[in-house]
Each structure stands twice: as C-alpha cells, then as structure tokens.
C-alpha cells in the first residue's frame, strides 16, 4: 500500500476535491493548516464536531499540556497552541503533514502507533481522532487512555448514526459523557473535579 500524499489545501481546492466552503477548508484556513494527507482517495483533516468541542474544552480548562492522538494534519495541536497550550505532543503513524504544519511551534511530533504509545506521563487534556476501524479497540481499552489523561479526554466515536452500539456501551460507564456535535459522536471522560466543565460543554451540544 502506498503511503499518503501530503498535499496543500489550496491544491485540493484548485482541483475541485475540496470546496472553499467545506468545514475542513474553513477550519484549516482559520487555524493556519496548509498541508493535509490524501490517502486512497480520502482527505484526512480536522473533524468539525471534534474541533468545536475541543475548542470549548480548551477555553474552559485552560490546560497546560495536551496529547493529540491520531493527529493527522496536526490541526488540533495548532488549535491548542493558539489557545495558549505550550506542552503539546501529537502522534500519528504518518507524521509528515503534522511536521510541516507545526514547524517552529515547539510541538513534539511523534511518528508511531498511537495505540501503544506510552510516554510515561499524563497530559491535562487528551484528544483522540482515530480512524473508525480503531474505535472499538480504543473503547475496549479505555483504561489506557485514562492513564494518559490528567483532567479531561475527548474521543471521536464515529458518525452519530453509526455509533449507537458504542454509545450504549459507554453510556453506563462512570465519568463518561457522550455528546453529538455536527453529526459525530464524541465521548468525554473526566477525572474527579472536572465534571462540571464537561457538563457545561455537553449542555451546549444538546
Ligand atoms: C481522522 S484522521 C485524523 C485527522 C486529524 N485529527 C487532523 O486534524 O488532520 C485519522 C488519523 O489516524 C492515523 N492513524 C491510523 N492508524 C493509526 C495508528 N495505529 N496510530 C497512529 N495513527 C494512526 C491516520 O494516519 C490519520 O492521520
């Protein structure tokens, strides 16, 4: 299988592969993301619902550190940087797009498997935007993600209309809240003391 191509957002627009007005374009323009991954016909970029919820969490939590798992373009790391976070690590098995987009910001870009990445420390905020085929594995091993999380984590669970089973399974768990944002299902996890900040974001999504 060929590795992904790293292409400019403008190039995708010129070729009619992305609209000027798609949420991906608007987010990239606002955050300052120039490079995206194009792989087997799919464009990998920031998920709109996750971007909004992450931004609301960043402004409420004011975290000092964040880990961006399955970072792709690095858009969420750049957003966190814009919101004042200075200790940021991002992980993707193809890290070139993130390296280009995050150059000069002091973000640590790790090329590797996010499922097994273990930095041996916690981050105030964890964001995970995995491919859909990995979501089940992440849910089965939520403990691993919790061990990375200092305060709050947000995980993409899939398009809301396909995530019913995952939502039901997570619904009964302690310190987990599932929200819908722009058609996507997201799980919010928190450590004791951070419930109200999660709930204040969840209420906005109702
Ligand atoms: C939905 S995209 C993430 C998009 C990203 N949030 C952005 O802003 O561009 C999913 C990402 O997961 C990465 N990926 C897939 N399997 C992985 C794995 N086992 N470990 C790390 N990254 C992986 C892909 O390379 C892809 O960049």
What would you say about this model in short?
With 206 residues, this protein is α/β, with parallel strands linked by helices.
- The radius of gyration computed from the alpha-carbon positions, rounded to a whole number of angstroms, is 16 Å
Helix and strand pattern: EHHEEHEHEHEEHHEHEEH
Shape: globular
The percentage of residues in β strands lies in 25-35%
First-residue to last-residue Cα separation: 41 Å
Low-pLDDT runs: none
Q: How many DSSP-defined strands?
A: 10
| Strand order in space, largest sheet | 6-5-4-7-8-10-9
- Kindly name the structural category: alpha/beta
Number of domains: 2
Average pLDDT, rounded to a whole number, is: 96
Assigned CATH architecture of the largest domain: 3-Layer(aba) Sandwich
CATH class annotation of the largest domain: Alpha Beta
Q: What's the number of helices? A: 9
Q: Determine the CATH superfamily of the largest domain.
A: Vaccinia Virus protein VP39
Helix content: 25-40%
Bound molecules: S-adenosylmethionine
């Amino acid at each position: 299988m060929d590795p992904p191509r790293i292409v400019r957002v403008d190039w995708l627009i010129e070729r009619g592969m992305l609209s000027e007005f798609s949420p991906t374009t608007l987010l990239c323009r606002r955050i300052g993301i120039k490079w995206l991954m194009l792989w087997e016909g799919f464009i990998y970029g920031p998920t709109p619902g996750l971007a909004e919820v992450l931004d609301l969490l960043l402004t409420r939590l004011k975290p000092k550190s964040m880990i961006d798992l399955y970072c792709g373009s690095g858009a969420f790391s750049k957003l966190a940087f814009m919101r004042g976070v200075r200790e940021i690590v991002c992980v993707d098995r193809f890290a070139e797009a993130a390296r280009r987009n995050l150059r000069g910001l002091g973000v640590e870009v790790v090329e590797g498997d996010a499922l097994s990445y273990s930095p041996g420390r916690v981050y105030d905020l964890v964001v995970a935007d995995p491919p859909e085929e990995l979501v089940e594995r992440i849910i089965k091993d939520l403990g691993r993600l919790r061990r990375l999380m200092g305060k709050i984590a947000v995980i993409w669970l899939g398009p809301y209309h396909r995530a019913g089973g995952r939502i039901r399974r997570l619904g009964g768990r302690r310190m987990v809240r599932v929200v819908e944002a722009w058609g996507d299902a997201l799980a919010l996890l928190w450590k004791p003391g951070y419930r109200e900040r999660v709930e204040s974001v969840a209420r906005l999504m109702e």
